[in-house]
């Protein structure tokens, strides 16, 4: 294929070959939002592979404990523990000074989708007429993707998920608020504070719009 093409991977950047002819776009989200989104996601998967980590009846809070203590290595990584999210982030940060590695945050994309499009276009050297860019931005809007889930959902229209539309749940942030105990939040805080600087933690949680004083 001589033309430009893209590849999506869930592999941390230190597990991929770094080729100067490719540009690596690394996208992150608040770890707690990613966790609660994944809870919804596994409920839409029509096979029980995630049931041990994400039981339907979880009054004891086993799911969140798995999230906090799960190993980024081996088969546990498929259940997306916090250690894997941190592995992704630290691997990308380690090479973020390369001109072909760029870090993006979901919160920034939600706040300014046109600006995110412009940034990616500059990085890739892509130019389109304004009306074409407007059409692309509209196509990438969350509501449009949910309404056309058979096109935009992975394996859309093939019956892989229970519901293609439910693959796009809400697209919102902060859905974890009010769902965790003080101890669970303290345990989460302790892990992030032990691994990340305050600046890196705030960016991983809230994106570039957050300064050191945000809470």
From TrEMBL:
- Is the keyword Transferase in the record? yes
Q: Which Pfam families match?
A: Sulfotransfer_1 (PF00685)
**PANTHER family the record matches:** SULFOTRANSFERASE SULT (PTHR11783)
The keyword Transcription regulation is assigned to this record: no
Which EC number(s) does the record attach to this protein? 2.8.2.-
Say which family it is in: Belongs to the sulfotransferase 1 family.
> Per its UniProt record, what InterPro entries does this chain match?
P-loop_NTPase, Sulfotransferase_dom
Residue ranges of every copy of the Sulfotransferase domain listed in the record = 1-196
Q: What is the protein name given in its UniProt record?
A: Glycolipid sulfotransferase
Q: What molecular functions are annotated in GO for this chain?
A: sulfotransferase activity
Q: Which UniProt keywords apply?
A: Transferase
What is the organism of origin for this protein? Pelagimonas phthalicica
């Amino acid at each position: 294929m001589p033309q430009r093409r893209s590849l999506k991977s869930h592999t941390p950047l230190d597990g991929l070959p770094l080729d100067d002819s490719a540009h690596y776009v690394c996208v992150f989200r608040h770890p707690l939002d990613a966790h609660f989104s994944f809870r919804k996601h596994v409920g839409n998967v029509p096979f029980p592979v995630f049931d041990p980590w994400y039981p339907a009846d979880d009054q004891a809070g086993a799911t969140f404990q798995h999230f906090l203590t799960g190993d980024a290595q081996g088969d546990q990584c498929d259940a997306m523990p916090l250690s894997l999210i941190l592995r992704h982030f630290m691997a990308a940060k380690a090479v973020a000074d390369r001109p072909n590695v760029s870090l993006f945050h979901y919160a920034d994309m939600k706040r300014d989708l046109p600006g995110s499009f412009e940034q990616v276009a500059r990085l890739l050297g892509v130019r389109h007429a304004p009306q074409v860019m407007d059409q692309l931005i509209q196509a990438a809007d969350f509501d449009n993707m949910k309404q056309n889930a058979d096109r935009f959902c992975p394996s859309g229209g093939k019956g892989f998920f229970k519901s293609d539309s439910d693959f796009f749940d809400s697209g919102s942030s902060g859905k974890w608020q009010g769902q965790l105990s003080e101890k669970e939040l303290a345990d989460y805080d302790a892990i992030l504070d032990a691994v990340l600087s305050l600046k890196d933690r705030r960016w991983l949680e809230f994106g570039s719009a957050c300064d050191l004083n945000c809470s």
